[in-house]
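Students often ask why inverse folding is considered easier than folding. One informal answer: many sequences map to the same fold, so there is more than one right answer. In these notes we will look at a single instance of the problem. The structure comes first.
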């Protein structure tokens, strides 16, 4: 895969170029480091939310299929799952914890080996309904994962989201790793609620990655204000959200289109 492109989001959330780092490190929570000369904690660098839109033709292709109003529901679902697979691949690049071991090859030789740490499965959090579709192929990319479904319903007038389902454990550990999926980040209200909930249960926002198909400026602004260190992986930043909360040009109601629901 090509190196990631960090985009400057239209809401003023600054992005910066991300040099591809190939070495795999064990990901842990971010802690303040100590200055060796004074023993005083170093001031933390200001955090900026990063929005990655990988410049890959396959990502563009599947996004185009999703955007088209003529794409039938089964194809919409498989395109969404495919896009999810590609975005999850990028999102876990420097996120998956690894262990160093040695393996014996068929030639009687021993090779150093880096493996995904089976003791720290990623906690995958799909926001129902459409977040589930985006995750369909996640198991093929991430060898060890646990799934915790959450469901929110949006009031059509106030656009406020309220939870009707939450399978997250009551207590989370500081070093738990989370991958939250929701195809459409329009206002960002639901995503903020999910991250708030993870933090209230003991998780850390630094250990959260968000995967979305399309994101819009109001969502990016809300998320950047509340969680400046967040990393968002998306196929596209669209320009607007209409008065009903739909992203324009967008792709319509992702859940309805994925499941063939008509009103
Ligand atoms: N949710 C959707 O499914 N589509 C949008 O455009 C916005 C929110």
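Output (designed amino acids):
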């Amino acid at each position: 895969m090509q190196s990631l492109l960090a985009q400057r989001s239209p809401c003023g959330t600054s992005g910066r170029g991300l040099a591809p780092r190939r070495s795999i490190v064990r990901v842990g929570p971010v802690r303040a480091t100590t200055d060796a000369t004074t023993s005083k904690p170093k001031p933390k660098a200001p955090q900026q939310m990063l929005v990655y839109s990988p410049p890959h033709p396959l990502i563009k292709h599947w996004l185009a299929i999703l955007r088209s109003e003529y794409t039938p529901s089964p194809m919409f679902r498989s395109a969404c799952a495919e896009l999810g697979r590609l975005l999850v691949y990028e999102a876990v690049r420097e996120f998956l914890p690894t262990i160093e071991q040695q393996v014996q090859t068929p030639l009687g030789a021993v090779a150093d080996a880096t493996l995904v740490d089976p003791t720290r499965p990623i906690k995958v959090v799909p926001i129902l309904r459409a977040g589930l579709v985006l995750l369909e192929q996640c198991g093929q990319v991430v060898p060890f994962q646990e799934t915790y479904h959450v469901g929110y319903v949006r009031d059509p007038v106030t656009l406020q989201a309220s939870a009707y389902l939450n399978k997250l454990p009551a207590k989370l550990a500081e070093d738990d790793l989370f991958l939250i999926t929701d195809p459409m980040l329009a206002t960002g209200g639901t995503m903020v609620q999910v991250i708030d909930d993870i933090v209230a249960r003991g998780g850390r926002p630094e250990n959260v990655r968000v995967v979305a198909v399309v994101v819009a400026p109001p969502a990016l602004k809300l998320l950047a204000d509340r969680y400046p260190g967040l990393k968002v992986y998306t196929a596209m930043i669209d320009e607007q959200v209409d008065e009903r909360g739909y992203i324009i040009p967008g792709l319509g109601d992702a859940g309805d289109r994925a499941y063939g629901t008509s009103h």
